[in-house]
Write a structure and sequence with these properties.
Length: about 160
């Protein structure tokens, strides 16, 4: 009958403890603090400005990116920069579960020139956040569990639809 050494037993226990911690993080993800939302919003704003359609209206410049959702509707990311360098980011959904509403706002925040929030941002936690965060990470190429259209490298995923402004 083979005998397991203490070192091997500790290694096995450590592996299982690590696996259980990963499962717990997946089932109960930690909530983001204000600084986490600020970093995420700034990165999302840069992505929208890099890939979005753009137009000027009055003293503001707008950028807009839209994705088709697997469950129906669209996820819309739109940012606005005013002449006084104030920047606004909105993430909203039309259609899907929001059918019949004008839209459902997932995130709204305003930034100053330093990139910090002006006032208190509004957000609703959801899978939209994980999908967009995965798109912004180079090693995480696909957000297909929420957004249809392939991975971040495909033109169909990033290409913005014509704005409706």
């Amino acid at each position: 009958m083979p005998v397991i050494s203490r070192v091997e037993l500790r290694r096995i226990a450590h592996e299982w403890r690590t696996r259980l911690q990963r499962v717990q993080q997946i089932l109960q993800p930690s909530e983001w603090a204000l600084d986490d939302w600020n970093r995420f919003a700034r990165a999302l704003t840069q992505m929208v400005r890099a890939y979005g359609s753009t137009w000027k209206e009055g003293g503001s410049t707008f950028w807009d990116v839209r994705w088709t959702l697997q469950d129906g509707g669209e996820l819309i990311c739109q940012t606005e920069v005013t002449d006084d360098s104030r920047q606004t980011l909105v993430v909203a959904q039309t259609g899907g579960f929001a059918e019949g509403l004008d839209n459902y706002t997932w995130f709204y925040g305003e930034f100053g020139q330093t990139g910090d929030f002006l006032g208190t941002p509004y957000w609703v936690d959801g899978t939209w956040k994980e999908a967009l965060a995965m798109m912004m990470l180079p090693q995480q190429a696909a957000a297909g569990f929420y957004l249809s259209g392939g991975n971040v490298g495909s033109a169909a995923m990033i290409e913005a639809k014509a704005s409706h402004a």
